[in-house]
Amino acid sequence: MGVNKFLKVKIDSTTYLCPEENVHRVVNFDMDKIYESPYGPSWLANLVIYEKEVIPLLNIGESEKNFNSKTKLAVIIKKILFFVAVEVDEVLNFVEIGDEIIETSINVAKKFAKRAFDYEGDECYILDIDALFSGKE
Amino acid sequence: MQIIINVSDFFFALPVNIIEKVVLPEMILHNEEGFFLNQIKINLLNAEEFFKIRINKNNPKKTLILFTLKNEVPVAILADDVVGFVRDCDLTCFQRGEFLKVFGFEYVSKFCSYNNVFIFFVDEDMVTKRVSELLWE
């Protein structure tokens, strides 16, 4: 049986797991370096510059985050050569989860997550990386 | 050289060579046959519609920008304001990642940061393409 490594993050009160191979970096963006986006769905409210590229800063939670904060915490997700930033409330830790637990996952109707499972008493949603890059929740 | 226009507090850069003139909206005559500028019929659009941006503040538009396009009925857009002019070489530019098209950025050819403001560049081909789409809609 294999082991899968994920970065565990909190978005609103939901625990999301981001596959380790797609985690590029955790970044705090200053609010004055965050630009409003004229395009895209409501959860693509902002753009940021990351490594000389303009990338979307996605708010996939239900609420506006860090409204009074001077920064926004985000996880930079990488897929091939592309990046997106996802706003998060909290970055927890890396976790290793065996295939036998992943196999217990069920299909869910959750924004940017196709599957969820119970892990150490916590309901965990696996972030759908393809959905983040296709713009389809 | 680019002309920078303000549309719902977003800043778009258009190449000056495709701009016929910039006039006040009061110069437009409107009757049951359509919109006319100096007795020439024009296709008049709100800039939000032209750029397909998602926000429409419904402000009274202050400026009319008339495009010169070969073999077409003249197209004009109503924008909030003309902010100024800029040369590409004066700006720090960021290229658009191809995947941003899926988020609606298909008409933006590049992005520039200038005095903590983001400028969305729309090149001549994109303007021509958008005009064709609107005339065929």
Give a structural overview.
The complex is a heterodimer of chains A (137) and B (137). With 137 residues, chain A is mainly β. Chain A is built from two helices and twelve strands, in the order E-E-E-E-E-E-E-E-E-H-E-E-E-H. The longest helix of chain A has 6 residues. Chain B is 13% helix and 45% strand. Chain B is mostly beta strands. In chain B, the strands form two sheets. Chain B has a six-stranded mixed sheet with strand order 9-1-2-12-11-10, with no helix packed on it. A six-stranded mixed sheet of chain B has the order 3-7-8-6-5-4. The model of chain B has no long low-confidence stretch (mean pLDDT 85). The termini of chain B are far apart. In chain B, a hairpin with a 7-residue loop joins strand 7 and strand 8.
Map the helices and strands:
The complex is a heterodimer of chains A (137) and B (137).
Chain A: E1 3-11, E2 14-19, E3 23-30, E4 34-36, E5 46-50, E6 53-58, E7 71-79, E8 82-87, E9 90-98, H1 99-102, E10 106-110, E11 113-119, E12 122-127, H2 129-134
Parallel strand pairs in A: 2-12, 6-8
Antiparallel strand pairs in A: 1-2, 1-9, 3-7, 4-5, 5-6, 7-8, 10-11, 11-12
Chain B: E1 2-7, E2 10-15, E3 19-23, E4 29-31, E5 34-37, E6 40-46, H1 47-51, E7 63-67, E8 75-79, E9 81-86, E10 92-95, E11 110-114, E12 117-121, H2 124-136
